[in-house]
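$ fold --in a.seq
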Amino acid sequence: MTRPHRRRSSRTTPPRLDEERSLWADGVDIVAGVDEVGKGSWAGPLTVAVAVLPKDRRVYGVRDSKVLTERERERLFDRVASWCEAWGVGHASPRECDDLGMSDAQRLAAARAFRDLGLEPDGILVDGHWDFVGSPKVRTIVGGDASSLTIATASILAKVTRDRLMRAAASDYPYFDFARDKGYPGPRHRAALAAFGPTPIHRTSWAFMDDLVWSGIPRTEGGPQQNLFARGIA
């Protein structure tokens, strides 16, 4: 079931527990929120996080990760992680995104996130209109990262985890400015691709590669950063 959009993400309007309380009132005890990040990036993994919140404690300042600064997300991360009853993160590697396509890669990352969660939720709230978890327990909510506190929490866990991976990759690929753009499109990213070609953590099947001309430097297969992402999705 898809719930309609309720409100846009805002720094001043906090997400609430309306959906969660509705489920709890219906006897759904363990409610998980799910969000993804990295779907539109040119490089790096696709990351899905799932979070289960306590019913009786709150953390101040939780918002959809997109309306928070990087510093604010980092400051919240440890507090949010320790606040959760349980949480998990799963990744699909750049090569898996290429080989499987984004829909199946998103399903794979979600399956890994639930495996990392370590418990079986009774109800699942997913941001957006598509059930990429693939469960009869799912309730999709358009704009859920703005309206649901559990989904907003998952959005912070997913975003910070992936951002840290991309900052680690920046030292291996300094010309791509991954510490700043986190693998997303931008003029500097495009210029670096034109000059040096794709790295091993680029999604080379994407359409942006089709007409890209670079300087002839061969693409390097393997390397330490592939091992970094392999550890993240093991």
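$ fold --in b.seq
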Amino acid sequence: MYGSDNVINAELHFFSNSKIRIDSCMNCTRPQLAIELKPIKKAFLDAKIRGVKLRYLTEITTQNISYCKEMISIVDELRHLDGIKGSFMVNESEYLAPIVLFERGKIASEIVCSNLEKLVEQQQYVFDCFWSRAIPVDQRIAEIEDGLRIKKPPPSHHSNQRSYETKVLENPDEIYNKVKNLIEDTDELLVCSDFDGVLLIYDKFFDSYKRVLDKYKNGEHKGIRWIGTIKNKKDISNSNLIEMFLDLGVQLRHVKTILPINFAIGKRGGVDEEGENELHATIEYAEGGNSIQSLLVSNDPAYIKHFSLIFEELWNNSLIL
């Protein structure tokens, strides 16, 4: 959904639909809006009165500490975690992700909304992983006020930053060329997809993978990491292909549940704030090696940071094949 008014309305609708819990993971600029935007603050308070459990996770800094202190009385529990980039909320049936960078006091101009059960379950898992690593608000406030650890504010974005673009491709040739370029023209490739996707890669992009993995073996590339889900390695139809990919040097890992969205991130030069990286995403599954019919492509840092965060959390909690 696009437009600040639609973003606020989507969040208010999300709050009113919540019956059991609301888990919020927000970057350091968002506590200010939760306090200063009266409709959002009221939504928090109304949900709390209804008995909805409110957990709020953010990066508490010297710049937002006053707002976080006020948030303590609004939510049931507040915790701090270093380096939160993306923002999202999840309840028992819905998932919201306002697309924001580090722009203080600015309402997001677009938001991703979903009630897909698997996506909600996956994002709840991601939140719980972050939550388990976070520290209590009292401890973080004491650290700041006692001068034990003061975080610097995130870097500001200057007017000369690159333009960002997010679009959906439907032309088969354009999709093929985009995917091929993502594989060959990046320094690291992250893939989160059902393992049926190996057949598509083998049929259409195997030579590209081989070239990249040859560079990886020569120390000229950071490699390909792929997360997927299988019940039993011997039971899947593409086990021989998976063995082949492992032999080539693809790092494959298994997670219990995976997003109902297949995505890949190509990283260039380790920079993820200047539009150099690229995200590809599709809700299609590549069964039988079928081609992708539509592909979302974006170099927007907000999307890339959000999905990179999800990928790394899944990777850290996955099993090596």
